[in-house]
């Protein structure tokens, strides 16, 4: 998660998170509220063990795609992808993938 104090400039879609978002996507709660890393599916199945900064949740492929195309990027009608900025309790951030 890449936090920011205010909404960034440039083209993006602003997504205001609600309790319904967290209910539908428990990993989102761990990412945004708990500030934990969430493991993504991998063909290598080399996943780091859960620790203090890791969520116990491991995304399946469907949930990974749901988070990607709802909270990281939004596909426009013309097929282009626009970054999503999420807002929760007045804090703006972007979800990002990383290794390690």
Number of distinct beta strands: 7
What is the helix fraction of residues, given as a range?
Answer: 25-40%
Number of helices: 3
Strand content: 25-35%
Radius of gyration: 14 Å
**CA(first)-CA(last) distance:** 14 Å
Q: What count of structural domains?
A: 1
Summary, kept brief:
It contains three helices and seven strands. With 100 residues, the chain is an alpha/beta fold. The radius of gyration is 14 Å and the shape is globular.
Walkthrough of the structure:
The chain has three helices and seven strands; from the N terminus they run ββααββαβββ. The chain has one domain (13-41, 52-93). A hairpin with a 5-residue loop joins β5 (73-75) and β6. Strands 1, 2, 5, 6 and 7 form a five-stranded mixed beta sheet that branches. A two-stranded parallel ribbon has the order 3-4. The chain is globular. The longest helix is centred in the middle third of the chain and has 12 residues, at 61-72. The protein is α/β, with parallel strands linked by helices and 100 residues long.
